[in-house]
Automatic annotation (TrEMBL), chains A, B:
Part of the phosphoribosylformylglycinamidine synthase complex involved in the purines biosynthetic pathway. Catalyzes the ATP-dependent conversion of formylglycinamide ribonucleotide (FGAR) and glutamine to yield formylglycinamidine ribonucleotide (FGAM) and glutamate. The FGAM synthase complex is composed of three subunits. PurQ produces an ammonia molecule by converting glutamine to glutamate. PurL transfers the ammonia molecule to FGAR to form FGAM in an ATP-dependent manner. It is an enzyme of class 6 (ligase). Belongs to the PurS family. It catalyses: N(2)-formyl-N(1)-(5-phospho-beta-D-ribosyl)glycinamide + L-glutamine + ATP + H2O = 2-formamido-N(1)-(5-O-phospho-beta-D-ribosyl)acetamidine + L-glutamate + ADP + phosphate + H(+). Keywords: ATP-binding, Cytoplasm, Ligase, Nucleotide-binding, Purine biosynthesis. This is Phosphoribosylformylglycinamidine synthase subunit PurS. It is found in: Cytoplasm. Its EC number is 6.3.5.3.
Amino acid sequence: MSAYTATVTVRLKHGVLDPEAETTKQALERLDFDLEDLRSADRFEIDLEAESPENASERASEMAKRLLANPTIHDYDVEVDER
Amino acid sequence: MSAYTATVTVRLKHGVLDPEAETTKQALERLDFDLEDLRSADRFEIDLEAESPENASERASEMAKRLLANPTIHDYDVEVDER
C-alpha cells in the first residue's frame, strides 16, 4: 500500500449556465481587468492509501460518480500523484 | 497578442477550518469509501489575451489578489497555458 493524492476536478458541462462565474467575470471587469471568459470548477484533493495509482484513480472516480459530481450537469477528471 | 488560459487555484491556508470538506469526507466514509483526508479548493479558468505568458500570469495573480482570493484565509497559485 502506498500513499496517493487523487485530485478530482468537477466542472459544469458545456452549455450549463454558471451565474456565479458570470458574476465573478463582471466584477473583474468592473475592476478594469480585461478577460474573455471565466469558468469555475470545484477541486477535491483526496489523500488515500492504495495498492497502485490505478486503484487510487478508480476509487476517486467512484467517489466522483457517487457523491462529488452530479452526472446530469457535471464532468469530472481525476489525476493521481504519489505523496 | 496571444490567447492564454490562466488557471487560478484558491485553497484555504493550512490551519483554517474547512467544515464543508469535513462534511464531504464524512459523507464519503458513510458510503464506505476509505480515505485519509479531503481538501477542497476553488478553481477559476480565465481566458485572456496577453503579450506573453508572463503577462497573462501577472494579470491573473492580480485578479486573485484583488477579488478571487481572500489573503487572510487563502493561498492561491496560477498556471498559464496557451490556447
